[in-house]
């Protein structure tokens, strides 16, 4: 089934930001393929074709991209949204658990990007929109592993964007702050918890839960994803929501010592 419509491929589209982005891209005139680890149980969404994908599997990634090309004939936009959260002190996650988080949040994003780039370069156009986070710009006590993945996504995306511009392809960042999703409930707990961190870990969970109660709706982020996918002169990075915008400005312009104190205050850390 070839299509004249531009085609957007959205990973992690069964819920949260991914689902909102898939819906918004349909409204913007795209034929949308949404992925889920189990597409058979994904709630139907008008205009979206759901397919199975495990971003941690080379075979699954290449099979998925081949299916999309075979069915639609093109991929114009890739939205790398699939990810997993992780909470706890950095010392409390084993290297194996850390690898698991990186395999989804970083290497999964890279697998998907590498799989679609030959098709985009061949036609001289395309957008890769990577859903990062303001936690890729700032410290995140008791979410160190998750923040590390987002810092990696930031550096990777900006670097590859420069490599690809001459081929008509852009790699862009969308940076939400806290968003009203199931992030907290689905985040990995540390697999090597230590008593020395237990009290502060619970404080940090409370801080996160409080922030999520007033978090942005996923539709706020979805609107920005569509802008990144369609702007005629895209910016390298887009903040999503007022809080994300404020954090980005503060990170750039507030003196480092003052910013450090604010991080500790917000996270209720002593000293």
TrEMBL record:
Keyword Oxidoreductase: yes
InterPro entries: SDR_fam (IPR002347), SDR_oxidoreductase (IPR051911)
Any coiled-coil regions, as ranges: none
Alphabetized UniProt keyword annotations: Oxidoreductase
Pfam families per UniProt: adh_short
Family per similarity comment: Belongs to the short-chain dehydrogenases/reductases (SDR) family.
Protein name in the entry: Oxidoreductase
Organism: Paenarthrobacter aromaticivorans
Lineage of origin: Bacteria, Bacillati, Actinomycetota, Actinomycetes, Micrococcales
